[in-house]
Amino acid sequence: MGSKFLVGAATAAHQVEGNNIHSDNWVMENLEHSTFAERSGDAVDHYNKYEEDIKMLASAGCNAYRFSIEWARIEPEEGVYDEKEISHYRKVLDCCEENHITPIVTLHHFSSPAWLIGKGGWGDSYVEDAFARYAEYVVSKLERKLPYICTINEANMGFQLQKVIEDMMKSMQREGNVQVGMNMDMSAVMVGLEEQANAFGCDKEHINTFLAARSQEQELFVMRAHRKAYQAIKKVSPDTKVGLTLSLFDYQPEEDGQEEAARLWQEDFGFYLPYIKEDDFLGVQNYSRKVVTSAGALEPAQDAPLTQMGYEDYPAGIGHVLRKVAKEFPGELMVTENGIATSDDKRRCEFIKEAFSGVESCVKDGLPVIGYCYWSLLDNFEWQAGFCKTFGLIAVDRSTQKRTAKESLKVLGTLAG
């Protein structure tokens, strides 16, 4: 694959750092009628243990680490920047450098400052300049240490959630229709909305956290926030490669499903393409496939192996999606997330080998794929689902925060070699 091919793992700040007290997620987790299965709390204390975690990644043989900088830490109040937190992330980047790890930094991975939600959140044009200012501030402080930036993680998640909710209104669907841990108990959701509205200082129709359902019209605020951030970053650091990431399913049409599969792909990818086609790279995120007929995407077959997340265990999907994206996106491609939630690490080892084989095949065929990041480095907080979904290459005993590398970490490191 060549010495410059990036192989590593990914995390997101809120899911691993702990005590992200100025974020919208922290507010929602701590409400009386929270829709979260449990609170993030100390999470897996990556905020204090990042050095140990990065060294474990490096000693296994990996050469890349994708992690997020937490906006709510950097700008806990609107216009008030916390130099101590910028200093923290500078130390994380220094640690990567010392361990010969290429950092891939995400500026927004689902969690936002609580104050932003009171201003309209991600469903209002206000977010565009607010996000660009934050991006410019971070890069101006850290520019020499930022070879790759993903502005926004899974920028298409809002519309994917909108479709799931619409489907649920027609008939109760399994949570495996979206690649994130969500609570789809609508009665619990409705009870919690009033409390959220009071907490954020907005009405319950306008609680636009990033993980809220959005129309395609509202998705344009997200894409314009990305474009403005892209321009702000390039102004400060022209050599930094900038892109975003998308959540993409491997849609596999049956004979009568070609048209429907094309429509689904257009909603997940084609709609966003005009806003990203000038980016340096695209972060491709895939966990499963969906078989499609003229009636829509089918539930997994009864005998299909499922992950803890409720979707089909299908490692071949990432290679298929890379090939599909490469036909339309002109820049470089990076697998920024791909993984399996399972308690069986032997299966995780096999999943990684099978998925990586598909990525290797793409590279051999000349596709501009520059890296592969497994999700995730650590067993962590899977949003509304809590700590029960185990994706990690490293197990964490949360009573002591003791780390134990799994065999799968060694497997990934071997592939990096």
UniProtKB/TrEMBL annotation:
Pfam families to which the protein is assigned, alphabetical = Glyco_hydro_1 (PF00232)
**Superkingdom, according to UniProt?**
Bacteria
Q: Kindly list the biological process annotations in GO that this record carries.
A: carbohydrate catabolic process
What GO terms are given for molecular function? Answer: beta-glucosidase activity
Q: Which residues form the signal peptide?
A: none
Q: Name one GO cellular component term.
A: cytosol
Could you list this entry's UniProt keywords, alphabetically sorted.
Glycosidase, Hydrolase
Entry-linked Gene3D superfamilies? Glycosidases
Query: Has UniProt tagged this entry with the keyword NAD?
Result: no
Protein family: Belongs to the glycosyl hydrolase 1 family.
Q: Which PANTHER family match?
A: GALACTOLIPID GALACTOSYLTRANSFERASE SFR2, CHLOROPLASTIC, GLYCOSYL HYDROLASE
Q: Spell out the protein name for this chain.
A: Glycosyl hydrolase family protein
